[in-house]
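#structure-requests
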Amino acid sequence: MAFFIGRDREARRAYGFDEIALVPGTTTLNPEDTDVSTRLGPVKLQIPFLASAMDGVVDVNFAVSMGHLGGLAVLNMDGIQARYENPKPLFKKIAQANPEAATKLVQEIYREPVKDKLISQRVKEIKKGGVPCAVSCIPQNAERVGALAAEAGADMIVVQGTVTTAKYKSSKGPIVNLAKFCEKIKMPVIIGNVVTYSAALDLMETGCAALLVGVGPGAACTSRGVLGLGVPQVTATVDCAAARDFYYKKTGRYVSIITDGGMTTGGDICKAFASGADAVMVGSVFARAEDAPGLGYHWGMATPHHNLPRGTRVKVGTIGTLKEILFGPARLDDGTQNLVGALRTCMGAVGASNIKEMQLTEVIIAPEIKHEGKLFQQAQKVGMGKK
């Protein structure tokens, strides 16, 4: 539905996680009987969770741990891990910097060039851990990083920018042909980020295995403030999922939709799947793991941009191990632990036995869902009153 925001100017209403709720089903299931596995092209995941390719979230050890737990962690090959042989002291510096100096410090650290040998080395280190390896880079670096990562044994590459489209114009520098890249590279390609039906449909034509959905919703991202860009994640996911379904009917090829960012609790994640997601990619949630390299801090991919940073460093703290965040037992009351258990329980309540059935869940507009009857929690800042 569109509304007039001024004379002869219409704007479409869009929705985020806090504005909707999921309706319980007419049949319920035992949560233990639900199947939460998913596929990204030929890669099957036992749990539909990806860890964002952000330096405060994923290093080699984290990627191995995530893989053994059934998910997939993406290593940022434009980041610290591909620039420094021993990056641990740098994480300590970033964690100790005061807020005013943090962005400048990160910019200085990222001036060190990316090294080809480290790209190959990191991939081999993850593969040595016995898990699938996924790497990430910006479109401009895709050819170089992709070739090195594929040769080293990587299983998947994520080509990711703030906004990525199949059609790109530039009077300066080479233009990456994503269709040719997907055809040439010897592994599945995930492309992001996108938020609209038409742009998603165009990107599916490149031959990619999956799309990342989300512009600006991340906890450490400031794109929405700096650039004014963004579509709330529920609407963005629904629109891109509609493109996926149309494309599948047209071609018989299924391109997975991954909701990327904006989710902080199990409830948000459940709503993403009900909106049409095949998997979710989260950053700040996993940055709070004791296993994460950021020491309780988290920063956006575009934070080190030398001219126009579109991210910031935020303190997220640590709340437990990665295993506890994914599988519990939950010791906190706010929905930030046992995310897989939350998803299974919600699927059982709506009567969905698998992710595809979860995508058919009835959704209602309910902006008061987080406040109704929660006066004591809000007053005492516990449970749902912590936000």
